[in-house]
Amino acid sequence: MCRGSLFHNVGPAAEKALSPLSFFLRRTIQKLSLCSKLCFAIGGAPKEVAASATAFFLQIYLLDVAQINAFQASMVLFIGKAWGAVNDPIVGFFITKSRWTKIGRLMPWMVGCTPFLVVSYIYLWFVPPFISGRFIWYLGFYCLYQTLITCFHVPYSALTMFLSTDQKERDSATAYRMTMEVLGTLVGAAIQGQIVASAHTLKHCSTHNTSASYLGNSTGAEIVKSLKEVYMIAAGVIGGVFVICTLVMFMGVKERDDPYASRTEKQIPFYKGFILVMRHGPYLTLTAAFLFITVAIQLVQSNFVLFCTYAADLRDQFHNIVLTILVSAVISIPLWQWFLQRFGKKTAAFCGITWIMPFTLMLVFIPNVVVAYIVAVSSGLSVAASLLLPWSMLPDVVDDFRLANPDSKGHEAIFYSFYVFFTKFAAGISLGVSTLCLEFAGYDTGACKQPAPVVYTLKLLIGGAPVVFIVTGLMILLFYPISEDIRLRNKVCLEELR
Prior knowledge:
Helix content: over 70%
Pfam families: MFS_2 (PF13347)
Low-confidence stretches: 3-28, 207-219, 261-265
CATH topology: Growth Hormone, Chain: A
Membrane topology: Multi-pass membrane protein
Strand content: under 5%
Radius of gyration: 23 Å
Keywords: Cell membrane, Membrane, Transmembrane, Transmembrane helix, Transport
CATH class: Mainly Alpha
Order of helices and strands: HHHHHHHHHHHHHHHHH
Family: Belongs to the major facilitator superfamily.
Mean pLDDT: 79
Number of strands: 0
Transmembrane segments: 106-124, 136-163, 230-253, 283-312, 318-340, 347-366, 413-436, 456-480
Number of helices: 17
Structural class: mainly alpha
Oligomer: single chain
CATH superfamily: MFS general substrate transporter like domains
Distance between the termini: 15 Å
CATH architecture: Up-down Bundle
């Protein structure tokens, strides 16, 4: 009765149909301690700390501090993201081939890559003394950083499935993780924003023509030097956070082997597992939906500082507005966790993500400080939902796949790595294209004031384009087939397979 996954219509009454054996197993499921959940969540925070800093500040750093032109910056951002996306399935492949060790199969990846990851991140924010080769410098270190962050993030994401056999425990751990990751995003924006914000003010334009003053000329040489120093300080602080949080996760999290797979010596090859995963309808629907939603969030995130600086005259407020968004997101994570348990994950996705659309448009048309902070609080609700929901729904898809393919073991990394691959690749394309649009609009590197076409382009990238992508993603999500009834049925059937 339990085989075949989605293809049987079983209502919520299936929860009551447990066999005596499955009832006993349900009673003996090992619960996760609060300490384990916190340590697991802390392990994911530094990735978001670094991601927040790069998402909000790398674009303006490349343009106004490293002073490479907008076309080169777009190539760095796109190629780096695309390279990271390509690495996701490759890392996923090698993880499936990894042997079990005393500390698990996934943990060695995360611990081993951390020192190299920190070094590559720091060099990403270093301005080399030469000028002609800076494009190659930043492209090389951004690609290296993307490779190493993939080696950390793919096994960390897959670790969710090896914390507990109980869906509620995994959902709870995911909520802790999302709260800590949003907090990490907040910390990253706070560290980077508060350290570098003072160097991005308009003080250097006060005694010069704002349309002709440049950060890179002799009058701005001291400002450029200050910018270089503060960005390096911020990079060092974030690198230290990465090391500390990884150690906490290593000390406090125990990785468990897969209890659901049949105990057989026959292993399914990677390519066959990949084909099975790519034919799994719920996975394709979920990935496609959040691909478009992720692109929308990425567009807003990557262009927000430029928008505040050049299009909304909020240069002195952008770091506080960013913090307001993220504080709102942190506070609302428990709200969305309660909401998805009460009304279902699909309903939570629709209610949470649609919330951002009217407010981003409002900021574009009414760019003043009061509106900006109102929009920030409201947008934080959607940011929290967009972070929590896909990672809460993906384990349900993996459970559904396990039920349909009970003899397939060790393919969890394929689900997570290719989900990250598709979303990261799409985000890379959108980020590269958006920066290229600024080049075509006439972005003037280092200038205190940008021409009108650049201002219009930034408004489009913050307002109109994200709305289109969000609507597309939500329309695809309508076809996501795992309802609460099916999720509960899958839970019962998997317990019977243990």
